Inverse folding.
């Protein structure tokens, strides 16, 4: 079968031929429909994030997938059922307390692998196997966009964890700001626009630009970080009740504290490289304490977040799905899915259709 992988000798995606996998007991065989590409895949390719499976000379890419159950293999799933796979798996197949609790997304390094990211092959293949417990049903009507369940689930978890910090008091948020106009930022912006009176999205692009067009269409305010740095949002626009960082630009983590209103919460998603720079730590510490602010980090997601994401996916408007997906390519022309540029938002590799 065809797979898209990265080898130790090359940092570009390669079309490789590998044997079709056979499901172990408890696993189903899934025929892949589509696999999305995101910032993390680029980081895996350039070696700044993740790592190969032990002893392997290549790693199959891809962690945002949707497929159809080909062989249920006695798992209780049905042949033909559309599913989206979660990403974290037991290291060497051995369970631990995080998997037993159903919280692998909270496991520390070494207590998990991630399909297509760290220590395990991904889903960019004609077929993949997975424990049935980690395959979340997706309605057929949204199968074409089922690869968005994974990125949406990242935000479902981020929001759940961020809001949980505000539960002890009567928090009445009105304004939210997303930092970053990549695919994760734009999907999140649409989600937040459904909840908040006023939303903002920070980028660093000139108009005309397809991502800024989406921000306008969502009904949000575009903020150019070259004109208004994140810590000046309160003076130029307003202090934010919620900030969602999806740039990976490390100064944003600290500028978020200034951007927040009294009692606000900022959630950090970006995965920056090491970078030393100066910050006024005293003022940040003071600001967080005296104004009851909260800054949290979050990574990955699990089954309940995938289930929430399936609900959200069904609500996404058709125009947004059309505008977000800028490339659909077959495995033979996979480079198109990894070509970056201002007109590329979400690229997808299509292996098959329903
Ligand atoms: P992208 O690279 O597609 O998007 C990042 C966006 O941030 C780009 O649009 C970029 O603009 C913008 N940006 C970067 N620096 C600045 C700046 N200084 N001012 C304004 N805008 C800026 O990534 P994704 O949308 O896929 O993901 C976003 C981040 O979240 C990444 O760091 C990714 O690694 C991380 N991530 C984290 C997950 C988690 O579980 N924590 C899961 C998935 C992703 P431009 O294109 O113009 O350069």
């Amino acid at each position: 079968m065809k797979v898209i992988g990265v080898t130790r000798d090359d940092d570009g995606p390669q079309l490789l031929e590998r044997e079709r996998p056979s499901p172990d007991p408890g696993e189903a065989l899934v025929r892949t429909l589509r696999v999305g590409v995101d910032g993390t895949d680029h980081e895996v390719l350039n070696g700044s994030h993740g790592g190969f499976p032990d002893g392997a000379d290549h790693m199959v890419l891809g962690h945002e997938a949707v497929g159809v159950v080909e062989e249920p293999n006695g798992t209780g799933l049905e042949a033909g059922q559309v599913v989206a796979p979660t990403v974290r798996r037991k290291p060497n197949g051995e369970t631990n307390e995080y998997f037993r609790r159903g919280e692998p997304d909270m496991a520390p390094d070494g207590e998990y692998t991630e399909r297509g990211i760290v220590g395990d092959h991904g889903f960019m293949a004609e077929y993949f196997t997975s424990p049935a417990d980690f395959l979340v049903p997706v309605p057929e009507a949204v199968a074409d966009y089922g690869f968005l369940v994974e990125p949406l689930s990242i935000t479902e978890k981020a929001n759940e964890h961020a809001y949980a910090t505000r539960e002890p008091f009567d928090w009445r948020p009105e304004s939210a700001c997303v930092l970053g106009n990549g695919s994760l930022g734009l999907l999140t912006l649409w989600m937040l626009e459904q909840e908040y009176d006023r939303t903002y999205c920070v980028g660093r692009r000139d108009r005309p630009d397809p991502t800024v067009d989406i921000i306008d269409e969502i009904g949000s305010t575009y903020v150019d970080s070259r004109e208004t740095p994140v810590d000046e949002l309160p003076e130029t626009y307003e202090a934010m009740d919620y900030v969602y960082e999806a740039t990976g630009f490390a100064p944003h983590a600290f500028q978020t504290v200034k951007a927040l209103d009294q009692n606000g919460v900022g959630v950090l998603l970006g995965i920056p490289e090491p970078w030393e720079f100066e910050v006024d730590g005293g003022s940040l510490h003071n600001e967080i304490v005296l104004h009851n602010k909260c800054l949290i980090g979050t990574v990955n997601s699990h089954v309940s977040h995938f289930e929430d994401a399936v609900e959200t996916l069904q609500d996404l408007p058709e125009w947004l799905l059309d505008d977000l997906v800028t490339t659909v390519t077959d495995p033979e022309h996979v480079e198109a899915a990894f070509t970056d540029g201002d007109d590329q938002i979400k690229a997808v590799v299509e292996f098959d259709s329903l």
